[in-house]
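Researcher: Structure for this, please.
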Amino acid sequence: MSEEDFDIVRGSGNVFRDFGYGDADIRQAKALLAAQIIEVLDADKLSTRQAEARTGIAHSEFVRICNVNLARFTMDRLVAILGKLGQEVEVSISVRPRAPRAAAVAAAP
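Model: Predicted structure, token format:
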């Protein structure tokens, strides 16, 4: 294969948007919060059982987060879990019209 066989496409910064998910922004936010939870567990060398003992959050919930199975979680639940792990969460929101490229990607089959 040569370089001519490939097209380089710059991503939007949100893989869920790039794949056309309608709820891409929520999925991205939840994934970022879950990544922070995993980072705290790793930094503190906590198993999911130890995290349960420290926070009172069920071991199975931490397993879901570590497996990035986030369908059952709301953003506020993930923020609350970070709080129980001793973390302070600061949220910054900016709203702007979507670029035409993002709309075209979302409409693609």
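Researcher: Any notable elements?
Model: The domain at 15-107 is CATH 1.10.260.40 (434 Repressor (Amino-terminal Domain)). The two ends are 26 Å apart (CA to CA).
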